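wait is this the right file?? whatever heres the structure
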């Protein structure tokens, strides 16, 4: 017999999983634990979400998309292109990794621990990388657009995001502002290095 999905059960699973992932981390949280908190069997969760990573993506994709849209709105209020770039990198490398008890770390943990043959539910990180590419490109003077032709700068920025996310709370001795200054100066063609 086919089970009927109920919106309130689905919402409860998402709410509980969000809280447990945020508080304990993706790796430390099991589907059984989520089910127990919701008051259903673990097998019932799989009626709504085919895997733990699918559940995480269902939670994190709208959060990350919303955060990227907020970033875009915020930078449009900044006139100076260099200040916009600094704001973008500060947000991607410091603010988002630190937000909500380092929730972004869950995505990195999920990707790293997922079986190699598991297809991701959707590629929200690719969407973010493409979105970021446009934001950075809009900040650069036209003569520096060649730097963005192959999307490697946005790819590098997301790879750094992964590193900063995994090391939330461990980078206090690093001067993130100095790193951002170097990166912005390099992109703008003002680097002395």
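ok assuming it is, sequence goes like this
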């Amino acid at each position: 017999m086919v089970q009927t999905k109920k919106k309130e059960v689905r919402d409860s699973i998402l709410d509980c999983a969000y809280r447990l992932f945020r508080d304990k981390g993706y790796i430390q949280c099991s589907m059984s634990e989520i089910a127990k908190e919701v008051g259903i069997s673990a097998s019932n969760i799989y009626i709504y979400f085919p895997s733990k990573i699918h559940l995480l993506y269902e939670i994190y994709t709208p959060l990350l998309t919303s955060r990227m849209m907020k970033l875009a709105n915020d930078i449009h209020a900044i006139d100076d292109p260099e200040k916009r770039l600094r704001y973008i990198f500060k947000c991607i490398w410091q603010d988002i990794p630190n937000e909500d008890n380092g929730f972004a770390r869950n995505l990195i943990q999920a990707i790293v621990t997922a079986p190699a043959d598991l297809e991701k539910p959707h590629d929200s990180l690719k969407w973010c990388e493409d979105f970021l590419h446009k934001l950075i490109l809009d900040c650069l003077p036209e003569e520096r657009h060649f730097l963005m032709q192959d999307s490697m700068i946005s790819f590098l920025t997301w790879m750094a995001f992964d590193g900063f996310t995994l090391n939330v709370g461990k980078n206090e001795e690093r001067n993130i502002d100095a790193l951002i200054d170097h990166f912005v100066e390099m992109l703008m063609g003002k680097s002395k290095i």
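The mean pLDDT is 90. so i think its the right one actually
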